[in-house]
Amino acid sequence: MESKLKKELIVKAAEARLKARAFSGFHVGAALMTVSGEVFTGCNVEIQSTLSSICAERCAIVKAVSEGYTDFVAIVVVSDAEHPVSPCGFCRQYLIDFNPDMEVVMANVDGSEVLSMTAGELMPRAFVGSGRD
Fold first, then answer.
1. What is the DSSP string of 5-51?
2. Residue 129 lies inside a defined structural domain of this protein
3. Is 128 inside a domain boundary?
4. Given 57, 82, 103, 121, which residue is catalytic?
5. Does 50 reside within a domain?
6. Is 103 part of a structural domain of the chain?
7. Is 103 part of the annotated catalytic residue set?
8. How does pLDDT run across 85-122, given as a tens digit for each residue?
9. Is the pTM of this model over 0.85?
């Protein structure tokens, strides 16, 4: 992904994190880009039953799918942490299921520290069932 676009998505993800409902105080935002260039943002939404909470990455994916988009090329994840954070295991499986070659960009809020790899690199030897298209 080109540098200018990456910076724009980092800003969108950082803005999305401000909408998080995070009892934990850990705010995360994501910006997901489709093959056609559409961008969907998401934030973490925590509820009292932590297993039912949703991460920013899955929030963005669910928003995109509900609008008819299923082909993704990149996702950017930004949190309040000093250094970039990586997607949790649930989110990694979601990313793999949609596109193992999707670029996953992890950045701190101001974009001064950025890591980038594919979903497949984030989760080697991932489960891929036979039900995929």
1. HHHHHHHHHHHHHTT-B-TTS--EEEEEEETTS-EEEEE-B--SSGG
2. no
3. no
4. 57
5. yes
6. yes
7. no
8. 999 999 999 999 999 999 999 999 999 999 999 999 99
9. yes
